[in-house]
Every structure is written in C-alpha cells, then in structure tokens.
Amino acid sequence: MCRTLPSRPFCQSSVEVDVNFPGTCFGTVICMLLAAGTHAAPTEPPSTLPYASIGELQSRLHSGVLTSHQLTQQLLGRIDRLDRHGPALHAVIETNPEALALADVLDAERTKQPAPGLLYGIPVLLKDNIDTGDRMLTTAGSLALTSAPAARDAGVVARLRKAGALILGKTNLSEWANYRSSHSSSGWSGRGGQTHNPYVLDRNPCGSSSGSAVAVSAGLSPVAVGTETDGSVICPSAMNGIVGIKPTLGLVSRSGIVPISHNQDTAGPMARNVTDAAILLTAMAGSDPRDPASADADAHATDYTRYLDPDGLRGKRIGVVRELGGKEPNADRVLAAAIATMEAQGAIIVDPVVLPHLHELGAPENTVLAYDFKHDINAYLATRQGLAVHTLADLIAFNNTHAAEEMPWFGQETFLHAEAQGPLSDKAYIDALDKAKRLSGPEGIDAALKAHHLDALLAPGPGPAPVTDPVLGEHVVGGASRPAAVAGYPSITVPAGFAHGLPIGIVLFAGKWSEPKLISIAYAFEQHSHARRPPGFAATIRE
C-alpha cells in the first residue's frame, strides 16, 4: 500500500552530519555525485539545503552549483532517515517513484528556458487527498482507495507542473481530512499511521494537513500543499512553526481533490516563510473549467511576491479578535508580543474587536458539512476507476469489514451522520447554508472590518501542541479558523513565538480576495519578529 522509496546507492566517505538530528551521519554528498554521473556538479555542503528557501535554492540551481536531481536525491534521503527511520515522523505517506527521472528532465530543460519561473525544478509535496495522474496513489489516508491511482492530475497539480515544480510525493493526513469521527487523533490515518510533531515527538501535529506541515517544518521539502475545510491548513501550520495560507474559496481549483464541502474546501500553500508561500500560491492560483467556483479566479490571481513589503505594517489598521482564542496563557503571551511588534512597525491596533455572530456559526456549518460531504464524496468517487468503493455507504461498509486496520482508535460516527442526510434540495440544508454564509461573511467579517475601518483581523493561534492521545482523541486549545473558513475568505498563519519548545502562531484574516494585503502584513511581521526556528526532534518536553 505505502510504496517504497526508489533505491539509492550509499557510500561511507565524506560524511554529512545532520545537525538537526545529532548523532547520525551519512555519506550523502559524495553518494549523490557518484550516483548522478553526468549530473555531478560542485555543491555546497548539503546540510545547508534542508532549510534553504526557494530563492536560495534557485540561486544555486541557476548558477550550476546544484541540480534538481541532486536536490531531489538529498530530500529523498532525508525523508528516508527522518521520516521512515530516526525520529520516524510519518509525515510522507509515499514518495514519487519517478522523482529523479522528472528531475533529470527539468535539469535538461533548464538550459533551454530563457527565464524559468521561481518554482521551476523545486520539489513540492502534496497532501494525499490531491489527485496525481501518475504511479502514486491518492487515498485520503484510507485503505479503501489503495487499489488504483487517480486517472488524471488535480487542477492545482496541473498548474504546479506547468510552473516546473517537481512533485516529490504525498503527505500523511488526518484520514478523510478529519471528517470520519469527532473522536479522532489528528495526523492519524489507516494508511500512514500517526504523524508526529517534529519539535516534540510525543506532541500532536494538528490536522488535517499534518503531514504537509511536518514535512515542511522538518526540511523534507521546501514547500507543500495542504487543504482546508476549517482549520486544516491553519492549525497544523501554526503548531509546526510554518506559514500556511488558506485562500479565498475559488482562487485555487478544487478539481481532483477528495472533498468534504464544495462550500468551504480549498487547497493552500504551506512553507517555512511568507515569501515561499507567496511563490507557491502564485503558481497554484487561477481558474479551472473543472471547478465552477474558480470562474473569477483569473481576475484576482496575481504574482503575490509583489506584496512582500517589509514596511507592510505601517499605517495598517488591525483589529484583535480575542474571542477566537482559547484563553490559553501561552498563546495570549505570544499574541501580546506580536501586537507590540506590529505597533513598533507603525500598525494601528484596535483591541478588542467583537466579531458579530461568532458563536452562531457552529451549528449551521456542521449541517452544511454533513449534507455536502455525502453529496461531494459520492461525486468524487464516481471519477475514480478501479476502486471497489463508489459511495459513502461503500466506505462505511469497508471500514466495518476492515475495522482492525481502519478503526483501532476511533469510529466513523461522522460518516454515519452524513450518510443519513438527504439531498441538497432539503430546506434544512438551504437554510443552514444561507445562515452560515451570511453570518460569517457580510454580517460577520465584513461588518467588523467596516465598523472599525480595518485592513485585517488578528487572532491568537491555537495553544501549544497537546500530547497525542489516540485513546481520548485530540484536545487543541483555541483556534481562529472558523469565521474565514465558513465565509470562504482568506486567512494566514505566521510563526510568532514558542512555549516550552513548541511553536505558536498568530492568525490574520480579512475579506474576500484580500490575499495581497494579508501577505503584505504577514511578511512585514515576519521580517521584524524572526520567530521561526527549526525543530529539534525532542522525544518529550523536559522540565
């Protein structure tokens, strides 16, 4: 089911010391040169590569001191020793068996490209609910979808390939994007097992894009793509110390992505810095005839790197929505420090701001998701050939038959609730959808922005990552994703501090198509806070 890495030579000389996982050393750089043959080129010590930015990597690729083949092989080796072995992060569910061959093609074509784009030759990991029309599987973490790969690329994958990105593999996730049970452990799937937080391994990575967040944080890939219905990009990004962007609904195509809800689903970029997230979003954004919601995307998609302004906080009016926090003292402390940084850079802080109808969103959202999931998953499964499951009812039956593998820790009561729902023409659904969209958007976020003449809203991220508990399920404290998720508006999380060695982020959100403004604010904050540091793979928190 979970395919093995392509075979790679190993040699003993000229060892590389992995400074991020002390006590291990590997002959990576010489192995790469010997194995690559004609791919050989002078390289800088590869220990500098895992946390290099896209710009730094492109500089080396353009100058010829690094090839995409070498970079890809370095990352495959790092996945092998940190994800499969060593701390055994379980972030990558499958690597692309064609990755090195694709890198060779990109290297050969690079010299023919007059000005390759910023993503050209850069490895990207995809959440395992995003279709690729190749030898890799797309399973949403479920054993039910392992019998055949998807027939074609998802819309967003097609755009990434067009930009020259190299699809390195698929990442683990909370199975079915955490829409199977309310008792689940984030980052666990029947196919991939439990993903671990790279800062402290017994802590939870949050979900559902847990594998994408952990892989980027741990230097297994420069960037990754996650998906969000409500919090699935924002929470894992915050808890793993990276940047995550949840775009406006429809800015990025959802065709070929295992769905929960066409009213809230979107793919989003995940990176170690705002610049790389902006580069990835630039490549991802745009219309797709297979996704009607993206019809207006081309009118708003742009080069988001244009908004990377270190002075982007000056004069911005930012409202603090404290109600979105969990009154968690560590997150509140980090938020206070972030506000001080913003004010020092010329931002005007309005604190607090009350978000109208905030506490009225849960019930209608849950109703919409239950109806949408049954409808949308049945429609998606109809596009997959070679599977034994064709409906949500089939998935429920599969889980019952394979309960030992699929339900050792938690059940499928969310599946059962969704299966019990009627068609999308039901009045209960129509009323809930209207209420959810109206109260979250025009009468919620839009109203708060207008009332206080704000550029953006700010909220604390979730508190420090809790201990992973498959028996009792997750217990995340706080979370600021719901209003923007329900409204279909953009949000972004940026690393802002630490508590007991665990990263904590802040969350910024605003109205529809406000990605440029949010990126500008987030970038300016990042440039003056310098809050991120790489993970240390500690076994547990020590006093």
Defining traits:
543 residues, alpha/beta, eleven-stranded mixed sheet, two-stranded antiparallel sheet, globular, disordered N terminus
Brief synopsis:
This protein has 17 helices and 15 strands.
Explain this structure.
The protein has helices at residues 28-36, 54-63, 68-84, 99-110, 155-162, 175-178, 210-217, 234-239, 274-284, 329-344, 362-381, 392-401, 403-406, 413-419, 427-451, 482-487, 515-529; strands spanning 16-17, 25-26, 92-95, 123-127, 166-171, 188-189, 193-194, 223-228, 243-246, 266-271, 317-320, 348-350, 456-460, 491-499, 502-509. The chain is an alpha/beta fold and 543 residues long. 35% of the residues lie in helices and 13% in strands. It has an eleven-stranded mixed β-sheet, with helices on both faces. A two-stranded antiparallel ribbon has the order 1-2. The chain has 17 helices and 15 strands. The protein is globular and about 55 Å long. The model is unreliable at 1-47 (pLDDT under 50). The relative contact order is 0.13.
SSE blueprint:
Layout (H helix, E strand, L loop, with lengths): L15 E2 L7 E2 L1 H9 L17 H10 L4 H17 L7 E4 L3 H12 L12 E5 L27 H8 L3 E6 L3 H4 L9 E2 L3 E2 L15 H8 L5 E6 L5 H6 L3 E4 L19 E6 L2 H11 L32 E4 L8 H16 L3 E3 L11 H20 L10 H10 L1 H4 L6 H7 L7 H25 L4 E5 L21 H6 L3 E9 L2 E8 L5 H15 L14
Parallel strand pairs: 4-5, 4-8, 11-12, 11-13
Antiparallel strand pairs: 1-2, 3-5, 6-7, 8-10, 9-10, 9-14, 13-15, 14-15
